[in-house]
Design brief:
Elements (H helix, E strand, L loop, with lengths): L1 H14 L10 E5 L4 H7 L3 H13 L2 E2 L3 E3 L5 H6 L10 E3 L10 E9 L3 H12 L4 E9 L2
Parallel strand pairs: 1-2, 1-5, 5-6
Antiparallel strand pairs: 3-4
Length: 140
Amino acid sequence: MAETLGAALGQQLLDCGLISRGDRDVVIVPVPSPWLRTHARGIDHAGAIAASVARACDARCCMALRQRLGATQVDAAARSGRMTRAQRFSARRCARRIAGRHAVLVDDVRTTGSTLAEAAAVLRGAGAVRVSAAVVSVKD
């Protein structure tokens, strides 16, 4: 399913002109799931979709982000101020590949948009000149 959804999402990115096929200044970046959730499910949905998007667009895929917290979005809202929201994600060593490039964040679902905003801020901090988001589904 991730392969099919990623290919369709990649085609949408190409069709709307957000990116061009084979553009070396574009890097596809999945929004990481918490490690515990990925382990329990046996798959990182956004990572699998992002890899498929990269193949469909002939672009690079970089696992540039790490999620520091294992909590869900709902749990994070109930958490007291132990961490600011900006500390939720951190850049991995490979994030240096983002510097000077257009980063396209890929996620499976956008609920409030806060996850994408937080991840985008980290990518901008790593030197991305432009950050866009692409999601498979939006919850209203």
